[in-house]
Every structure is written in structure tokens, then in C-alpha cells.
Amino acid sequence: MILAEKITLLRKKAGMSQEGLAEQLGVSRQSISKWESAQSVPDLKRILDIAECFGVSTDVLLKDEIELEETAPVYSEGSLGGTDAGAGITSGTDMGMPPLREVTMEEANGYLALKAVSAGRIALGVMLCILSPVVLILLGATQEAGLLSIAENQAAGIGVLILMLMVGAAVALFVYYGMKMKPYEYIARDPIETAYGVHGMVAERVTNYQPAHTRYMVIGILLCVLSCVPLFFTLILNTENVAVIALAVSLLLVMISIGVLLIVRTNIIMEALHALMEEGEFSRENKNENRRNETAMGIYWMSATAIYLAVSFLTNRWDITWVIWPVAGVGCGILAAVLKVIRSKE
């Protein structure tokens, strides 16, 4: 149980309103509201005042592993002495290393809020890239089938124009939200130290979001797997109608784009939480590894993008060239593994 929850529970057990507690502590009601919603953390003096007000020790307030239900009010005047919230933790400076950058509660909340917004926008950008050839495919097929009374060059021109507009919009989203996240880049890139209460707050969010994350991943993967169903139907019907085949391919791309949107969005949100907790791929060891691999990965994805655009424009087979992206994704994993082996041998 984190400090925010303990303050709320103690206040309610005492039958006090936020205004009443604010008056007792000599602070504003807004301060109490921010403490209880984990938007900020009271300073040391306020923590001492809260402990005295409710008759509990500072250990009870500061140690997340201590549940209020397991404790009795045992406040003693000097209980904070000898009980450092950071006891047992050696700072980077003590070890002769550069000091770690501290992430405050306000910074953590700001980072997570911006990540939640940017996750949807970046996922939308990826979706636009996948959907970009759909209009070109449909126009070309309907024109070839004689269902559209425009010239072939006109159909191709309109399709390519819409494709470029959609890709341009996607790139604009990537650049804009990439710049917005610039001040928080250090959280995912560099070793950090979180202020008191941040780790507990993030751990609680991970627990609360995990069911939704699992649900979005399952739906997204299922949509990607089932995206081939429309094409299978064209095989079953044994049709050679160009318009029907184009429609099946378009439905395939739509299903993949929705599935990828769900997967990308939920993964960005979950990765932000893991970055603050320095878990998984964002552990300090992996952060150091990722920094060393940044240049290679940047070159890899720029090359993949160049190959996709070159092959697509030269062959005009946008209905097939999207396969380059999942192949590139697998290749990225292989490249990361190879780089890790090379680093381990250095």
C-alpha cells in the first residue's frame, strides 16, 4: 500500500474530510487531494505531522510493504530517527558513479499522462501507414474491372496522392509526439532513481492495467491472424474478379491495421510503466545495451523504410509489399540478438 492510499484510509477512518485534515496540517485542501491521488508527495515535515495527527509511526506511512490493517497506531516522537526511507540503497555517488537522475512524483505522472496520449497518436500513425495503399488498390482494381469511369493514370494518380497524404500525416504524428516526449527521453534511456512513492504508484498502475493490456494484445494478435480470412474466401470462391480480390486485400490491410494499432498503443503504455520501474528491457543493464545499439537500429529501420518504398513504387504491388514490415520486425529481433552476442564477446 502506497503513501497516498494510507493517507486516504487514515483520514476516512478518523472521519475527517480533506478540508478538516488540511486545517489540522496547515495546508490547502488541494494539497491533500494531490497527496491522496499520488500527484505529489508531502515533504518530510508534513509526513511527521501526518504521523502525529493519526497516531502512527513514520515507518507505517513510508514503507509500502506495511499494510495499515496489520498495524496499530504506535506513533512515537522519534520514530523517524534511524528509519531512512532509502536505507540500504547506495546512491551512484557513493559507489563512485555519476549520480542518478531522480524522477519526482510530478514528473512520473506527467510522463505517464503524455505517454498515454502519444501512444494513441503513434499507433494511429502506424495504422495510417498500413492503410495508405488501400485507396490505390481499390481504385486500380475498380478501374481495371470497368466499374470506375476514369482513366488508369487518373486512378493511379489519385491513389498515390492519398497514399502520400496518409504517410505524410503519419510522419507528422511521429515527429510531433517524438519532440513532445524529448524531455522524458532519459527515463527510458538512462538509469534513474525514483522519489519516494513513485515505484509504489507505478506498480499499482501496472497491476490495474495488466488485464486491459492482455485483452488488447489478444484482440490485436487475433485480428492479425484472421486478416487472411478474406483472401481465403476468394480462393474458396475460385474467383478471378479483380475487384473482389482487391476488396479482400483491402479488408486484410484494414484488419491488420486495427490489430497493430491495439498492439502498438498498449505496448507503448506498458513500456512507459516498465521504464519507470526499470524492469524487463528497461533494466539498467538493458538500458546501457540499448544505448550502444541505437545507431545500428536507426540505420536498420531507415534501410527497411527505404526498401519498402523503393520496392512498392517500382513494382506497384502495394497489396503485397506490406509483408516487408513483419519481416523487418523479425529481422530487428535477430539483429538485436546478434549485437548482444557481439557485445558479450568484447
Strand order of the largest sheet: 1-2
Q: How many structural domains?
A: 3
Q: Write the element-wise H/E pattern from the N-terminal end onward.
A: HHHHHEHHHHEHHHHHH
Q: Can you count the helices? A: 15
Query: How far is the N terminus from the C terminus?
Result: 44 Å
The backbone outline, from C-alpha atoms, is elongated
Structural category: mainly alpha
Can you summarize the main beta sheet? 2 strands, parallel
Mean pLDDT: 79
How much of the sequence lies in strands comes to: under 5%
The poorly predicted ranges are 70-98
Q: How much is the radius of gyration in Å?
A: 27 Å
Number of strands: 2
Percent helix: over 70%
Structure notes:
The protein has 346 residues and is mostly helical. Helix content is 71%, strand content 2%. It is built from 15 helices and two strands. The chain has a two-stranded parallel ribbon with strand order 1-2. Helix 2 crosses helix 3 (29-36), helix 7 (134-144) packs antiparallel against helix 8 and helix 11 runs antiparallel to helix 12. Residues 70-98 have low confidence and may be disordered.
